[in-house]
Amino acid sequence: MKEHKSDEKAGTEEAGAVAVAEEDIEDELKKEVSSLKATQSWRYPSRFTSIDTGIKNNIFIKTTVEDPVKLAMAVLNDVADTKIQKGRFLLRIIPVEITCKAYLEDIKTAADILFEKHFRCEPTTFAIVVNKRYNDNLLRDEVIHSLALLVTDKNQDHKANLKEAKKTVLLEIMKGVCCLSVLEDYKRLRHYNLAELAKPEATEAEGNQPEDTEGVKAEEEGDQGEESEKEEDDVEENQEKGAEKYSKPSEMK
């Protein structure tokens, strides 16, 4: 009996030792996996991160891509050429080169840096487009006037062109943040509207029409205080005229 109990006790201790060893190994494996994940996360951050803007139907994608404008242009030109819309729920794609607080002085500072890259060049044509959402602090005309002066400071021979500007200064102001870019082919690429680019062009005249109302209506549906598509087109035309007014050095104040 004593020998049997002794064997049982030895067997129990051995089983316990095996169980503890297995738990130790499992813990070590978990630690190793966690360590590897942390290392990989540090070495390989996500290339695209979604940031909530607090505005319905608008999202901001932060990226580690070196040139987001080049990436967006590749997508837009592909849709324009193939007439196949790549994103089911994506209406417009606007690349952003620089962001700042939505105050005039901050915008002027950021724009001056950006314009060194885009407008310190041979004479070209430009337009300025300001889209505001949930912001009442900035006046469009004041922003356009200030940025038009900055453009012509880089080269006084730059001219505004209401129909076919080679470069479009685009400001997307969302609440207290301003997203600023200098874009090419803004009109030809239908205001960077993927839905419109995917539509077949029935006639050349139809293809040269400004951005259709359907896309922007879907984009702005449910946004409080948003303008209709027709109003937005009117606003863009008026603000481009404002830019044209300040494109000639003799007319600057």
From TrEMBL:
<feature type="region of interest" description="Disordered">
    <location>
        <begin position="200"/>
        <end position="253"/>
    </location>
</feature>
<feature type="compositionally biased region" description="Basic and acidic residues">
    <location>
        <begin position="238"/>
        <end position="253"/>
    </location>
</feature>
<comment type="similarity">
    <text>Belongs to the THUMPD1 family.</text>
</comment>
<feature type="domain" description="THUMP">
    <location>
        <begin position="78"/>
        <end position="184"/>
    </location>
</feature>
<dbReference type="GO" id="GO:0006400">
    <property type="term" value="P:tRNA modification"/>
</dbReference>
<dbReference type="InterPro" id="IPR004114">
    <property type="entry name" value="THUMP_dom"/>
</dbReference>
<dbReference type="InterPro" id="IPR040183">
    <property type="entry name" value="THUMPD1-like"/>
</dbReference>
<protein>
    <recommendedName>
        <fullName>THUMP domain-containing protein</fullName>
    </recommendedName>
</protein>
<feature type="compositionally biased region" description="Acidic residues">
    <location>
        <begin position="220"/>
        <end position="237"/>
    </location>
</feature>
<keyword id="KW-0694">RNA-binding</keyword>
<dbReference type="Pfam" id="PF02926">
    <property type="entry name" value="THUMP"/>
</dbReference>
<dbReference type="GO" id="GO:0003723">
    <property type="term" value="F:RNA binding"/>
</dbReference>
